[in-house]
Structures are given as structure tokens and as C-alpha cells.
């Protein structure tokens, strides 16, 4: 990865010998798009959200107020779960959090800086 | 041995100021130990002593004052955005988001998290981990536990001057709220300054009522509209009917005019099933049943006078204390009166006289509760005087089942909405009885003392689990009954209906027999002298009484005479002189007793 911000609206004529503006950055970005789209298209998935460490929703398929609510609440819960796992065994770390409720299941995949939240209705 | 220390002071130095000074310690007395005493003791080696080295602690109890809490909402504003981004500006937020999306970390993170997430999603879709594999097993619910009930919550009247809780109504959906009507039913003994307010309580917050209803006169009954949960109907102590909309506030939304309202407290008010959901009817001890439309409360739409002679005379009308209406039988309704008679009426009758269909009498006092069995509407429960009775519409002479006479007056009763054989009654001594007549017929299945004062009203929630009872001091107690009493037992419907049918048949047979006997007597009477027999009914009560008295005294007198003669025969050989005395005594006694009307021993 070369950190090329390829999609920033620069339309420079590409000089020879240099990688094109549609470089690896754009490919990766497309991959992200595709991943999120794929997740959203799975059976029973009601909503997908990406939230950063400050609780700001980066990507979401739900409306703003719901997203903000989920972001705030789940962020805190994930932090708490992470610290619990760490407290019990400092070598351990939280990999995934699943909350099953009567109506649906909320799945949270935590990362150092981001949270991927998916709400699925395991329809039977 | 006396130890003495002498110090000398000159008389001239008395009263002088003290001068203190330091000096070395002086040994005044030295008493050495006496070794002979040691021989009286035996040395003990080793010695066991318990030692504890710890902090000494003491236990105290503290009861803090009740902490008043109030729930308030907080208004959140979206935060977390960096300082240069204004969260309200769409452009800025979009720009920020786009920036983040280009971050390398983001891309890495999402791809990784995405794959984990997908795995879990697919897992969910592949198999339902909570699937019930043994569904049919839970039908075996033989609950052998003894019936029990426990108090969950107590709602106290926040007013200083306590009033009784006279009526309760559960919120139609959700059952999280309870409307309680407070008033003082002692005639003209309502204390000065008693508040007229009634409350709607939210069970989540038992310390403070959620909504306050402010009528002009205390409410005797209060009912939620089953179709519209914001509307409540209240019957006032002064005979008016008031209507509230909780969205509009605590003041009365509609009030019936005094001239056309009842003349006595409204004891029963029920909403009717109608397309508009605005019709209701009310009954009061002034002997009238009135129908209202809450959109126009100035006049009742219909009035029926409870005169069982069917002559519509208000003077002869019976006062109504309870009202019953079942939405599955919309044209019929029943009224329980102060005189102990249940009147069954038909609303759709053409003439007002035909409105009254039939009467059932059997109680000695006012009928405080009247309710049809939710499963078998032909049978209904009445609660009054010291018993609760179950009636069948087919048997008009008497009730088909009744409880024994209790020590305390019964004040209210209700069927359980989930079990046809279970009903609840409350008593003046603060006891709640739960009866289950497929289980036990002579006693209640469970008898609970809810509070020390009298319980005035009772309401069961639609799921049959929760019961609210209101007491004389305005305390409403919420109880939860055990599972066994609120789940339908297998075969219970059949058993209950069989019991009802059997008892109805028994009563019918008894009725038929009574009728036969009466006919026979009539036949006999007609066989004898007609004129003589005609006189008998015209005998006045007083004449009969004097006749009975005369006979009674004659019998006593003759008995006494007999005793005297016997006594005389015994004492004759002894002293003839005493005979006369005894005779006189006997006569005196006879006269005394004749006046006093005492039974001869």
C-alpha cells in the first residue's frame, strides 16, 4: 500500500512510470464497499453501521437518530465487555459481541478504532 | 494493717496560696509478698487462653428517610465530533466521513471485521440455535404447589385526610396503569377539607400518582374506556357523570348537567359497546338507570326506572348499587339493588315497562358486586351481605351455589378472567378470599389478610394474575397470584360447566317440588269450608299475636298448677299449715310468670 489518496478529485494526467490514480487505494475502497454491501444483502440483516472510536457513525444504512442511539449505547457496552474480558485474563481480548434479544440479534465486531455493528433478524 | 501518711501544716499557713514544686519520688510503704500464701495455690502449666487480635466492631441499624426520586429526561446533542466539524452541517459531516473512509486503517479494519461478521451472519441463517425441539413436552403442567399470592406493591393515598378507595379500573392495554376513585361513602361524614381528587397510578412509580383527576365532587366509580384508553368515565358522589381525556389534562372534559343527573351517588357506570365508543350508562341508588353519550352530556339519552311492579313509580323504585354489562350480550344488562334483588333487564324492549325482564332475590342486604361468568355468561356471581352467591338465569327462585355466612360483610367480588371456576371476594375485615370450586366448595382455596382495615373494592387484571384491592384508608394493594390460580387447568371448563348444570338442575327440581307442595296446600284449602278459609287471610297480625299469647300463658298456667298439686301431695303429710302458704306462693309465682312471659322450667 502506498497511501495514495487516489480518489480525491485530482485529475492529473498520469505521467509514465508512475502508478495510475486509480491505484490500490481505490481498489481497497471498492472492496470495502463491496463487503458492506454484501453484508447488508444477507438474509435477515436489518441494518449495518460503522462507528469510529468517538462514537461517530461513519457508514450506516439506518436513519440518523437510530444510528446515533445504537452507536452511543453499543460503544459503551463494547468497552465494558472488552474491559471485563481483559480483567479476567489480561492476555485475552474481545473478538466479537452478540446480543440476542426477542426481536433480533445485534452483532458487534470491535476493532482498535472502529466498530462494525450489524442488526439481524434470524428469521425462521 | 492500716497505712497512714501524716503531713503537718502550721495554722498560720492555712489559706495561703499553694506553691507547687517538683521533687523526687519517695517510697513510703513497701509491703513484700508473703510466700506462705503461695502454698495455697497450685501452679498450672500450660495455660490455655484465647486471644483475638482484631478490630472490635459494633453493629448498628439505621433507617434512612425515604429518598424521593424523580425521573427526568436528558436531552442529548450529538457529540463526539471533532471541534472543527459542526454536526448540524450536513456538508461538513459528509466531508468528515469521506475523509475517514479513505483512511488506511479504516479499510483494513472493515475488511477484517467484515469477514468475521459474515461468518456469524451465515451461522445465524444456517441454524436457529434456540429452536424448541421438544415442544409438546410442556403441556404437562401439573402444578402441585399450594395456591399462594403475594403483595407486589402498595399504593397509598398521598392526601393527609384519607379517603376510601371505592373503585378501581385497569388500563385497557398494557395494564401498567391503574385508575383509582377515592371518596368517602359514609353518609354526610366526609371530613372537612377532604380532597375530591382521584388518581391514575403508574405501577412503575408507586410513590406518586401519574395523573390527577379533579372533579367537583368526589368520584365513586371510575372506568377506562375499553376502546380509547385516554378517556375515562367517572361517577360522582353528587350524582353527576364526568368524563376525562387524559391528553387534555386533569380537569373534567365533559360533565353532565345537575338537573338531569342522578339524585344520589352514582354507584355503577359502565362503557357500552358501540361503534362510536362514546356510549355509557350509569345507575344510582335513586332508582334510575341512565344512558349517556359523552359527546352530549347535557341530557341522558334514555332513562329506566327500576320499579319492579313495572309501574314506573320513582317512589317504589329500588336503589341500584351495582351494574353489570357483558359486551357479548349487548342488549341485556343487570342491576344489583340495595334491597338485595337482582333485576335483569332488556334494553331493546319496546315499552319501558317491558324493560325489566325478571328479578332474582336472595340476598339480605345490598348487592355490592354483580358479574357474569366470562366463560358461561348464563351464570353470574353476586356478592352482598355475608355471602357470595352464584346464580343461573334459568333458576329464578334461588341461587344455585352459595358460600357460607362469613363473620364479616362481603364488599366486592369478581370472576377470574382466565379460569371459569375461580372467583375473588373481599371482606370488611381486610381479607381477600380466592375461591376455586372445582378444588374446594366449602371454603376458599386461599384466604389472605391484605390489610387491617376493610377492603372496599377489587379488580382483577385481564391476564388473571394481578389483583388490585382498595381499602378504607385509600391504600391500594397489588397482589400477584400463583401460577396455579391463573392458568387454565386441563378439563376445567368442562368441570365448571358440569357443576353449573348440576346445581341448576338441583334447584329446578327443588323449585318444582315447592310448587307442587304449594299447589297441594291450595287444593286442600279449597276442599274445606270456603268461608272460613276466606277469613283466615284477613286475620290481622295483631289478632294472631294476641291469640298466640293467650294460648301460651294458658299453657304455662296449667303447667304451674300441675306442679303445685304435685308439690302439695308431697308435703301434705308434713304440715297442713304450709299448704295454704304454698298455694298462695304458687299463685303469686304463676301471676308473676304470666306477666313476665318466661318459659316454665
Automatic annotation (TrEMBL), chain A:
It holds the Pfam family Robl_LC7. The keyword Electron transport does not apply. Residues 1-25 are annotated as: Disordered. It is found in: Cytoplasm, Cytoskeleton. This is Dynein light chain roadblock-type 2. Gene3D superfamilies: Dynein light chain 2a, cytoplasmic. InterPro entries: Roadblock/LAMTOR2_dom. The keyword Glycoprotein does not apply. Keywords: Cytoplasm, Cytoskeleton, Dynein, Microtubule, Motor protein, Transport. It comes from the Eukaryota. Acts as one of several non-catalytic accessory components of the cytoplasmic dynein 1 complex that are thought to be involved in linking dynein to cargos and to adapter proteins that regulate dynein function. Cytoplasmic dynein 1 acts as a motor for the intracellular retrograde motility of vesicles and organelles along microtubules. Belongs to the GAMAD family. GO terms for cellular component: dynein complex; microtubule. Residues 32-120 form the Roadblock/LAMTOR2 domain.
UniProtKB/TrEMBL annotation, chain B:
The keyword DNA repair does not apply. GO terms for molecular function: dynein heavy chain binding; dynein light chain binding; microtubule motor activity. It holds the Pfam family WD40. Residues 579-595 have a biased composition (Acidic residues). GO terms for cellular component: dynein axonemal particle; external side of plasma membrane; glial cell projection; microtubule; outer dynein arm; sperm flagellum. Residues 564-601 are annotated as: Disordered. Coiled coil: none annotated. Keywords: Cell projection, Cilium, Cilium biogenesis/degradation, Cytoplasm, Cytoskeleton, Dynein, Microtubule, Motor protein, Repeat, WD repeat. Consists of at least two heavy chains and a number of intermediate and light chains. Interacts with DNAAF2. Interacts with DNAAF6/PIH1D3. Interacts with HEATR2; probably involved in outer arm dynein assembly. Interacts with CFAP53. Part of the dynein complex of respiratory cilia. Belongs to the dynein intermediate chain family. This is Dynein axonemal intermediate chain 2. It comes from Panthera tigris altaica.
